[in-house]
Please model this.
Amino acid sequence: MSKTTPPDAAGKPFLTDVKTLRARARQHLETGNVTSTYKGDVDQAIEILQSVLATEIVCVLRYTMHAVAASGISSEGVKDEFAQHAKEEQEHMMAVAERINQLGGTPNFNPEGLLTRSASQYAEGGNLVGMIRENLIAERIAVDHYRELIRYFGNDDPATRTMLEGILVTEEEHANDMHDLLVAHEGKPSLPPASR
Ligand SMILES: [Fe+2]
Ligand SMILES: [Fe+2]
Model:
């Protein structure tokens, strides 16, 4: 039976006493960091994160290919931007894979079925402007996806939510970078600005 302090005048939620916290932590050690206070559905969380992982892997692959294959007189700065994004997408990939592992799952890096698990697509884009445009589309998908997932995890799994919030900040920057590059190379945005 857990002992808690009564809510204070400000209506702050109950706090569990240290003794109960310590006793609870000793139970079910095999579940690692997923303790009895985890409010979410762990299997569902892992399944969602496998799809997020696939999305990030596809983003790593697409930006890496673009960083190598972009060509033309004005491609140098753009290549650097693509390479920087590839690196950041790889950091996202690792963070999501680590979180799946922490929740007791095995991160799915299997190339088979990767594109069906991923929210974003692997589009080659053709020329430089086509590449920028495909990346902008992929980033907008990622931004929408992450916003939705942050709402989904809410207070049931604050650690996963916080991780996704951190990733969302970078994805919004990525979308902004691609939008600016598109304006620089086309003179006008060919997509409506991302909803902020
Ligand atoms: Fe990402
Ligand atoms: Fe991104």
User: Anything to note?
Assistant: The chain has a mean pLDDT of 87. The pocket of fe (ii) ion (ligand 1) is lined by residues 56, 59, 89, 92, 142, 167, 171 (CB under 6 Å). Residues 18-186 form a domain with the Ferritin fold (CATH 1.20.1260.10).
